């Protein structure tokens, strides 16, 4: 299995991404989960990550708290999407498992130094603050990263928090810039893909029909999460952004995209946090990312439902 660190700001869709990873031990070995401030403040994301581990009955996975604010800007949160706990929807007990000792950034650094070079994949599902901080603090780890598979950005779908920016990149554009310029190979799941991974009624019924704690919790999370997108965009259901990352690790052939140059706007107030993706290759800037454009949504939901059934 592929060794990964999940860097996350749960978030209902983050929660489903984590569940999918924990349900897939043949393909994925979760070395640890690092929480970052994003959808809600750090204290809540660090708590929610542990709630999700307990829901999956995987209290063996260490959960670390990381950065509580972006590198250079005040934190922007998304309670309007995720509710005030970040995980509104199901009623889940407070976690019993403690946070792991130490800072998430140090866990990322130590893990990359300890494991063989090129064997650890980073999976950021929130703002890139923890990852960029680790790269700034310990540049020697950059070359040791196997790959970064992240959810963030948009090209044809432009933005969801401003007209031109996707939330994860917008919250900490300076961190995103560091990551995209690091030289590490990056696989990007932008809104172009995740807005096709919609939990329609039929798909939500399939989660509920699992008739397990996890099945009901996921159905209730997506029930809550879809309100925002339905009202705001007239979308057919909740977009499962972050699970695209973990699904890619299991079944990459579900996704297709282009290996292109992607740069992050950090200067302009108007387009701050935009992922400027050279989709049509109109520049000669070297490719730094596999920018996905398409997902086999039925295949994705079949995989997700089949795996959640194992928990
Ligand atoms: C991203 O922002 C968050 O609200 C979601 O968890 C996802 O990671 C989508 O723009
Ligand atoms: Ca997220």
From TrEMBL:
Residues 4-302 form the Inosine/uridine-preferring nucleoside hydrolase domain. The keyword Nucleotide-binding does not apply. Gene3D superfamilies: Ribonucleoside hydrolase-like. GO terms for biological process: purine nucleoside catabolic process. PROSITE patterns: IUNH (PS01247). One of its GO terms (molecular function) is uridine nucleosidase activity. InterPro entries: I/U_nuclsd_hydro_CS (IPR015910), Inosine/uridine_hydrolase_dom (IPR001910), IUNH (IPR023186), Ribo_hydro-like (IPR036452). Keywords: Glycosidase, Hydrolase. GO terms for cellular component: cytosol. Its EC number is 3.2.-.-. PANTHER family: INOSINE-URIDINE PREFERRING NUCLEOSIDE HYDROLASE, URIDINE NUCLEOSIDASE. This is Pyrimidine-specific ribonucleoside hydrolase RihA. It comes from Ruegeria meonggei. The gene is rihA.
